[in-house]
Automatic annotation (TrEMBL), chain A:
Transmembrane segments: none annotated. This is J domain-containing protein. It is found in: Cytoplasm; Mitochondrion. The lineage of its organism: Eukaryota, Viridiplantae, Streptophyta, Embryophyta, Tracheophyta. Residues 124-196 form the J domain. Pfam families: DnaJ (PF00226), HSCB_C (PF07743).
TrEMBL record, chain B:
The keyword Metal-binding applies. It is found in: Mitochondrion matrix. GO terms for molecular function: 2 iron, 2 sulfur cluster binding; iron ion binding. Belongs to the NifU family. Keywords: 2Fe-2S, Iron, Iron-sulfur, Metal-binding, Mitochondrion, Transit peptide. Pfam families: NifU_N. This is Iron-sulfur cluster assembly protein. Residues 32-157 form the NIF system FeS cluster assembly NifU N-terminal domain.
Length: 283, 172
């Protein structure tokens, strides 16, 4: 469902379609599950069976105490989740030399023998690129991390290795590219965050909000009729302001877990982005 | 204007096809039913009526996931309730443009009660739309209903009278 939506929304997210691995589920431990259940005010969560195995884990009683701590420290949630969610990867072993993963970085390649590891879909894009799982990230830090990974994972580097490892490299390298593209673009980053939270967005939804639609219609007509680049630049500047405004709205709504509002902001951003694409075509 | 539309249409098509713009244009005939291509190249009834005209009903709908926006307007004979003219303006993918173009053709000359029964599946079938593009035809169906509803709302307001049966149908 989400894959289809993303594909129709933006070419940037075509990366998601290419990824062979299933989308990582929006949880990693029972701790996260219980916190979400309590903190969430939205009914749009995935069904409980998705979480049931962690819920039934032997340590569930102990973990039940954790959410209260989170409730008291809402701003630290994402930090706590990030640190928690990296732990399962820490017990991984290299398929080639059997070395234990260090645990400080996502285990995509072995530190000892440099072998590329099989794809682990539970490692999300934020973990891959070493940024906190939130909307307001420093985009300029992503490129360096992305290039670092490609220096270790790129298929060209393993062309003499086994077919198995070449396959791993192809998948890992593609996924790192997906991660980079998805997190670089504000709109696709916003949609990816919602997806990690398990929030469903109805791709077939139709709206009749006259205020928004009249505005979009007027912008698109103005772009179509614009006679010179000066006019187009003027419209583009206005659209840019709107994009920034709704980007902030998304960040606020997402932080306070108002997912309906977050989706509404994403819709606005999609409309402005489309209009901007038309401008770019004409410029 | 027409040239603009054609450029826009081709641009939208390449997006829908998910291929680079350069190759998509060449692949058009194979990817889309000839009727879609026809409505692309010669969109029927593109334009706008004065939305403040009391005989005009305006339907404005959007599909936020694609960033599509569609305006469909009807001009109604007050005496007979017949739709004497229709026009549309759609910014969106090719299927959305073709769907609204077909919709204006179908509503012209019909009674308002009649056009409310136009189903998106009929439009989709007529254009042989693929499943992923069905929501474009839904958008056209929504636009027809919204236009009728808008016209009825205007008339009710002008007459200050009670609801007509059509209002209920439009809400359905």
């Amino acid at each position: 469902m989400w894959k289809k939506k993303l594909n129709s929304l933006t070419p940037l997210s075509s990366n998601l379609r290419r990824s062979k691995a299933p989308i990582p589920p929006p949880y990693t431990t029972a701790t996260e599950f219980t916190s979400k259940q309590i903190l969430s005010s939205s009914p749009k969560f995935k069904t409980q069976e998705n979480y049931s195995f962690s819920f039934n884990s032997s340590s569930s009683k102990r973990l039940f105490k954790t959410p209260r701590l989170h409730l008291g420290l809402p701003n630290l949630n994402s930090n706590l989740f990030c640190s928690v969610s990296s732990s399962p990867a820490a017990i991984s072993h290299c398929w080639n030399c059997n070395a234990v993963a260090s645990g400080t970085a996502p285990f995509l390649a072995c530190q000892s023998c440099r072998s590329v590891q099989p794809l682990d879909p539970s490692i999300d894009y934020f973990q891959i690129l070493g940024v906190e799982k939130k909307y307001d990230i420093k985009v300029e830090t992503l490129e360096g991390k992305y290039k670092d990974w490609q220096k270790k994972l790129h298929p060209d580097l393993v062309h003499t290795k086994s077919k198995k490892e070449r396959g791993y490299a192809a998948e890992q390298s593609a996924r790192v590219s997906d991660a980079y593209r998805t997190l670089t673009d504000p709109l696709s980053r916003a949609m990816y965050l919602l997806k990690l939270e398990g929030v469903e967005v109805d791709e077939e939804e139709r709206i009749s909000d006259p205020e928004l639609l009249v505005e979009i219609m007027e912008i698109r007509e103005a772009v179509e009729e614009a006679a010179d680049t000066q006019v187009l630049n003027h419209i583009q500047a206005q659209i840019q302001k709107q994009l920034e405004h709704w980007s902030e709205s998304f960040a606020d709504a997402f932080c306070s877990r108002k997912y309906e509002e977050a989706i509404s902001s994403i819709q606005r951003m999609t409309y402005y982005k489309r209009a901007n694409e038309e401008i770019v075509k004409k410029l | 204007m027409l040239r603009h539309s054609a450029n826009r249409l081709l641009g939208s098509l390449s997006r829908s096809a998910g291929s680079p713009a350069t190759s998509a244009v060449l692949q058009l005939p194979r990817l889309y039913h000839e009727r879609v291509v026809d409505h692309y190249n010669n969109p029927r009834n593109v334009g706008a009526f004065d939305k403040n005209d009391p005989t005009v009903g305006t339907g404005l709908v959007g599909a936020p996931a694609c960033g599509d926006v569609m305006k469909l307007q009807i001009k109604v004979d007050d005496e007979t309730g017949k739709i004497v003219d229709a026009c549309f303006k759609t910014f969106g993918c090719g299927s959305a443009i073709a769907s609204s173009s077909v919709a204006t053709e179908w509503v012209k000359g019909k009674q308002m009660e009649e056009v409310l029964s136009i189903k998106n599946t009929e439009i989709a079938k007529h254009l042989s739309l693929p499943p992923v593009k069905l929501h474009c035809s839904m958008l056209a169906e929504d636009a027809i209903k919204a236009a009728v509803k808008d016209y009825e709302a205007k008339r009710t307001k002008d007459n200050g009278s009670a609801e007509t049966p059509l209002d209920k149908a439009a809400d359905a």
